Every structure is written in structure tokens, then in C-alpha cells.
Amino acid sequence: MQVQGVIDRFEDQHKAVIIVEKIGQQFVVDQKSLPLDVSKGDILNLTIVKGEITAMVKNLEYTNFKKNQLDQKREQLKKRAKGSLFKERN
């Protein structure tokens, strides 16, 4: 089965947690098995056979697209959140 997963986090300095939303599952893998130059939030194309990841490749194009979407959302939130909603007491 071919699916996309996202690197959710790194644990214990040797493990990575990959979330696959399409099948509602997470996988814990050795960091050594990851493609080079991956980081938290990167999107991976995964091949899963019998419940195990047998291949993974970083999807650079989709990763960049998602990161750009997040950056745009952050900018919108910054523009909307000008100043505090709380008044200072003297």
C-alpha cells in the first residue's frame, strides 16, 4: 500500500514517530532508516506491506507546499493579533 506520512517527532535520540492519517496509524522507526535530511513535519511517501514500512522517500514538493501553507497561516494570525486584548492597570 502506498500512503503519505508525516514525521511527528523524534524520541530517545534514536527513534522517529511517523503518523499516517489515512489509515489512522503511527509507526515508530529507527532514525537510521529515514531518508537523509529529514526533519519534524516532513512528508514521506511510504510503502506499507503487512503493517510494516518497507520503503520511504521524502516528498520534498509536498513538504514545501505544506510548510508554505503554515507560514501563510502564521502571517495571517500575526496580522490579526495586533496588540493585547487586555488593558493595563496603572
Tell me briefly what this model is.
The chain has 90 residues and is of the alpha+beta class. It contains 1 helix and 5 strands; from the N terminus they run E-E-E-E-E-H.
What does this structure look like?
The protein is of the alpha+beta class and 90 residues long. It has one domain (2-80): OB fold (Dihydrolipoamide Acetyltransferase, E2P). The chain is built from 1 helix and 5 strands. It has one helix spanning 60-80, and strands spanning 2-11, 15-20, 25-30, 43-49, 52-58. A 5-stranded antiparallel sheet has the order 3-2-1-4-5. A hairpin with a 4-residue loop joins β2 and β3. The longest helix has 21 residues, at 60-80. The relative contact order is 0.17.
Jot down its keywords.
alpha+beta; OB fold (Dihydrolipoamide Acetyltransferase, E2P); five-stranded antiparallel β-sheet; 1 helix; 5 strands; about 40% strand
Binned strand content: 35-45%
**Number of individual domains:** 1
Oligomer: single chain
What's the level 1 CATH class?
Mainly Beta
Please tell me the overall pLDDT: 90
Q: Say what the CATH topology is.
A: OB fold (Dihydrolipoamide Acetyltransferase, E2P)
Strand neighbour order, sheet with most strands = 3-2-1-4-5
Tally of helical segments? 1
Radius of gyration in whole Å, from Cα? Answer: 18 Å
